[in-house]
Amino acid sequence: MSKTIKVKCNGPDQHINEIDIAKLFTPCFVMNKDAPCSGLPKRIVLDCRMCKEGKVIVTPSMIRAHVL
After folding, report:
1. At 65, is the pLDDT very low, low, confident or very high (cuts 50, 70, 90)?
2. Domain of life here (predicted)?
3. How far are the Cα atoms of 23, 58, 62, 63 from residue 3, in angstroms, in the given order?
4. CA-CA distance, 38 to 33, in Å (whole number)?
5. What are the φ and ψ backbone dihedral angles of 3, each rounded to 5 degrees?
6. What is the pLDDT of residue 35?
7. Cβ(11)–Cβ(54) under 8 Å?
8. Three-class SS of residue 66?
9. How large is the C-alpha radius of gyration of the chain?
């Protein structure tokens, strides 16, 4: 069972979107000295599922809070 996080969009209605954490990651190689989540971009911007103008912004700190 994959973990999901709930994030509000920045549109006028502030819809709550459920984001599957596993779908945010792409396969990558991990070296012994890499810190967890070190390869994540500074932010991931997704379209809101309920409105056209809203965007959902996911940051590495949000992911770390639910994964680690």
Report:
1. confident
2. Bacteria
3. 10, 14, 12, 10
4. 10
5. -90, 145
6. 61
7. yes
8. helix
9. 13
How much is the average pLDDT of 12-39? 77
Residues in the chain: 68
Q: Looking at residue 38, what is its pLDDT?
A: 61
- Which helix (H) or strand (E) segment holds residue 5: the answer is strand 4-8
Nearest in space to 46 (alpha carbons), one of 22, 19, 64, 28: 19
The CB density around residue 4, as the number of other CB atoms within 10 Å, is 14
The predicted model gives 4-18 an average pLDDT of 95
Taking Cα atoms as reference points, which of 53, 51, 56, 52 lies closest to residue 20? 56
Residue linked to tokens 């967890």 = 36
